Amino acid sequence: MRSSHKAAKCLVLAVMIGLIAGGVSCKRDGPGEPATGPPGTPKPSPPAKKWHIGFSQCTATEPWRVLFNQLLEREAAKHPEVELEILDAQDRTEEQNAQMEALINKGVDAILISPKESAGLTGVVKRATEAGIPVIVLDRDVETEDYACFVGGDNTEIGREAGKFAVEVLGGEGKAKGKIYEIWGGKGSTPAHERHDGFAEVVGKEPGITLVGEQDGDWKQKKGYDIMEAALKIEKDIDIVYAHNDPMAFGAYLAAVDAERDEEIKFVGIDANPDEGCKWVKEGKLTATFVYPPPGEKGLQVALEILEGGSPEQQRIYLPTRRITQETVDDYLRDKGML
Fold first, then answer.
1. Pairing between strand 288-291 and 323-324?
2. CA 19 to CA 179: how far, in whole Å?
3. What is the pLDDT of residues 44-53, one digit of tens each?
4. Are residues 169 and 111 located together in one domain of the fold?
């Protein structure tokens, strides 16, 4: 009995020595981690790369830019690999420059910027590019091509489309007659100049049309009101007000209402926000507006394409416009899922 008991002890000891020598172990890779397991067991995949993308928005108070931000955030939510940082420059070029410098110093993976003005933001866009950060310029351009891509509406083409509408309203090509009062957006921005240039290119071909007004409304409804209030005291015959965005066109309309001249003037704007331009067209306060699509969604898609090793289809990507009148507004809103 003793010899058999001793033999059993020896057998157990031999098995234990064999296990240790064979390297079988329940050692964990670290606190809370699963056991390594036998050789050849695949390890868990490392977490996906997180892209830190900064966006400097020139202002977040204008309704079109509120929509711009909302659509951008909605697109970012589709990409769990994206950490999106949105900054509001509060309509100040110096603040936007400071934001851009901060993003460069953080070493973000990509930058989206919608500039307050072109000249004032050119230098910092170039510095970001020189630092190896792809920059996607949205909506308003800068005075350099040292960036990865521009995404926005074709403001010159939008101006042309608004000009064609004005010519139709005033009698048609070769027969149009009347006076158009133009209210500019911010004169330090490229969209304002392009919207003027496209419009003037078309109406300038009509000898019967007079184009007046060069006041800077800075895209604000209140300034549109003030400009129109002063103009109505000087200009006795205005057939159309062409404003570079819907809030200024609506401000001009309100001034005309107060002067009891709204019935004699047609008001044309740009943007076609559902809660602004489209609403005012449906109510008969604006005669027409033209779609200016927010570029945030496409801009983010371009940034991700670049970060993942691709390249945009072209350096300048233009988004299409559309004429919105009382006859077409519901179709447009239905197409966008907003009706």
1. antiparallel
2. 98
3. 554 467 999 9
4. no
CA pair distance 301, 110, nearest whole angstrom = 12
CA–CA distance from 144 to each of 125, 194, 213 (Å)?
Answer: 8, 17, 30
154 in helix, strand or coil?
A: coil
Give residue 152's identity as a one-letter amino acid code: G
Which tens digit of pLDDT belongs to each residue from 124-142?
999 999 999 999 999 999 9
Phi, psi of 87 (to 5 degrees): -120, 140
Q: Is residue 285 part of a domain?
A: yes
Sequence-separated (6 or more) residues with CB below 8 Å from residue 191: 139, 140, 152, 153, 155, 185, 244
Instruction: Decide: 68 and 151 in contact? Cβ < 8 Å.
Output: no
Q: Is residue 15 part of a domain?
A: no
Provide the number of structural domains found in the chain.
Answer: 2
Model confidence, pTM? 0.76
Dist. CA 248–CA 240, nearest whole Å = 13
Cβ neighbours of 59 (radius 10 Å): 17
Residue with tokens 């109406």: 203
- Phi then psi dihedrals of residue 179, to 5 deg: -115, 130
Q: Which amino acid is at 46?
A: P
